[in-house]
Amino acid sequence: MDTTHEEDRGTPVGRRVVLGLLGLASRAVRADAARLSRFTPADWQWLRAVRARAAHRPAGKFNAGQKLYSQWTLGSMLVILGTGLLMWLTHLAPPSWRTGATFVHDWLAAAIAVVVAGHVRMAWRDREARLGMRTGLVERSWAEREHPYWQPVRDDPADAAPTGDLTG
User: Fold this and answer.
1) How far apart are CA 73 and CA 79, in angstroms?
2) What is the predicted pLDDT for the residue at 54?
3) Inter-residue contact 162 to 61 (CB < 8 Å)
4) Cβ burial 129-140 (10 Å sphere, 16+ → b, else e)
5) pLDDT, averaged across the chain
6) What pLDDT, on the 0 to 100 scale, is given for residue 10?
7) E-assigned strands of the chain?
8) Please, which residues bridge with residue 162 across strands?
9) Strand-pair partners of 152
10) Least confident interval from 47-51, 64-68, 113-117, 148-152
11) From CA 45, how far away is CA 64, in angstroms rounded?
12) Which stretch of 10-14, 120-124, 163-167 has the lowest confidence by average pLDDT?
């Protein structure tokens, strides 16, 4: 008898998932989602600077690469979910559709693995960025160098959301 699911109820992992889902409703997460979903003039400048391999790459809280990656990740998750459902719920589609879903699912999973490995490599090379991902805090000099248009709100110290015309 398989009781795995019964034993897993109430574990710390389950509580973390619930807290994570509740965190999606926070003001800061909603503000970041809004920033990630729109391009600003600074983002176009950032993309041109990357193509030219320029040292100065203007960015707000999120640079254009981070915005593109977040949008690609969301789209990939939706495709993986859709193709996974087609493979799992076999009565929903004919075999030829399930074969196509398997093909797309497998190749997209491979692409996701490559992109994630590239991001791990980039994070490994930037100690300050890793610190920021873990703690939410970075040195002011790093933030000014890497994200010059990001200006945290001054009137609410608990809210680190940037403001201004060119914020990302």
Assistant:
1) 10
2) 82
3) yes
4) eeebeeeeebee
5) 79
6) 53
7) none
8) 152
9) 162
10) 148-152
11) 9
12) 163-167
